[in-house]
Write a structure and sequence with these properties.
alpha+beta; 12% strand; single chain; three-stranded antiparallel β-sheet; 2 domains; elongated
């Protein structure tokens, strides 16, 4: 959607859409899998959720932005915080998330599992 043509509701939720990697589409372009966004009985847009492919990469990018640095360059404490944030956001339900995160952080899988175990104790 063109930002100048957005309904005020869409403009209001745009930061949320950006955070989860979703997009708002015009009602006429909505697919059956999109989520209708209605206000006062009027369909103002549809929310198109991102594909699962690349979801972990998007989550990692979001956390890097939030913490302010690349995973590989972070301190041990920051890496533990990253694991906690990703765990809270459901990242570890994705296949190979532990392995991929360990590679991105420059640590072993065991280290990521240790961080997770410490969180869940």
């Amino acid at each position: 959607m063109n930002p100048s043509d957005q309904h005020p509701l869409v403009s209001t939720i745009q930061p949320l859409l950006d955070a989860i990697g979703a997009t708002a589409v015009e009602p006429a372009a909505a697919l059956p899998s999109d989520i209708p966004l209605e206000t006062n009985g009027e369909l103002v847009a549809a929310v198109r959720l991102p594909q699962l492919h690349g979801a972990l990469d998007r989550m990692i990018e979001s956390v890097e932005t939030e913490i302010g640095g690349r995973l590989a360059d972070m301190s041990r404490e920051d890496k533990q915080r990253v694991v906690r944030l990703l765990d809270e956001r459901g990242a570890f339900t994705l296949r190979r998330a532990v392995e991929d995160l360990a590679d991105a952080m420059g640590v072993s899988r065991i280290t990521v599992y240790n961080y997770l175990n410490a969180i869940h104790r």
